[in-house]
Amino acid sequence: MSSTKLFARNNFMQEGFSRLWRGTNASLALAVPTVGIYMPCYDYFRNRMEGFTTEKSPTLTPYVPLVAGIIARSLACISCYPVELAKTRMQAFKGTQRDVKLPGVWKTLVDVINPVKGSSNGQNYRMLWTGLGAQLARDVPFSAICWSILEHTRRSIFSFMGEEPRAGSIIGANFTAGFVAGGVAAAVTCPLDVAKTRRQIEKNRDRAMTMTTRQTLAEIWRDGGMRGMFSGAGARVGRAGPSVAIVVSFYEVVKYGLHNFHQQ
């Protein structure tokens, strides 16, 4: 049995069916603003930079998706990070009893800010961005790899189809390209995801504020070696591939529909 299936089965046996969806409300609260910032920003920066490089320096045009992806993901990540932190902590929460009510997004964030009394408010609010460096260290390479593969794959599929793009072909091309790009990017950046998660669930406030991604990766390597670095890789790839495919294909077909609507 794979590690992903084993984890899901053990989680179900020990904590109940509902715990498999722990953190879902935070995931939904995170997804809408993140995609709302990320995708339009990527389109904007890609179009502006492609226009510039095509005219001034055509040799740089193939690298535009990589750079646009980095900028757009950085903006989305910084803006929505507190909710990402809440989601990770909610998913890592373990109740001592079956009937213990899981903390919500707001309570989780309040607990992050005020776990104990007597510390300064400025430092408390800094805790909402605990692990942001690790998040950026994971998401920026992920986005760069993902968009570099996705744009090339998508254009190759459209070129192979050789027809005027329609809703069906747009969904098919973007879903396929997104699935491949998301899966590859998730596999490559898995160690950074493990480091991000470890930093976000760190309970010691002083340690959480001083930990670096490099130190965390060194600890993971020392504790578990290569297996520890790629812990949960199957689950991450299994989630990232379909997630990227669904988001990109939905976004592109909505864009196509709005474009046709305004032309009529």
Automatic annotation (TrEMBL):
Annotated Solcar repeat ranges: 60-156, 169-257
Cited Pfam families: Mito_carr
Keywords: Membrane, Mitochondrion, Mitochondrion inner membrane, Repeat, Transmembrane, Transmembrane helix, Transport
Transmembrane region(s): 20-40, 60-81
Chief location bin: mitochondrion
Gene3D superfamilies in the cross-refs: Mitochondrial carrier domain
Domain of life: Eukaryota
PANTHER family reported in the protein's UniProt record: FI19922P1-RELATED (PTHR45760), MITOCHONDRIAL SUBSTRATE CARRIER FAMILY PROTEIN (PTHR45760:SF6)
Family to which this protein belongs: Belongs to the mitochondrial carrier (TC 2.A.29) family.
Protein name: Mitochondrial carrier protein MTM1-like isoform X2
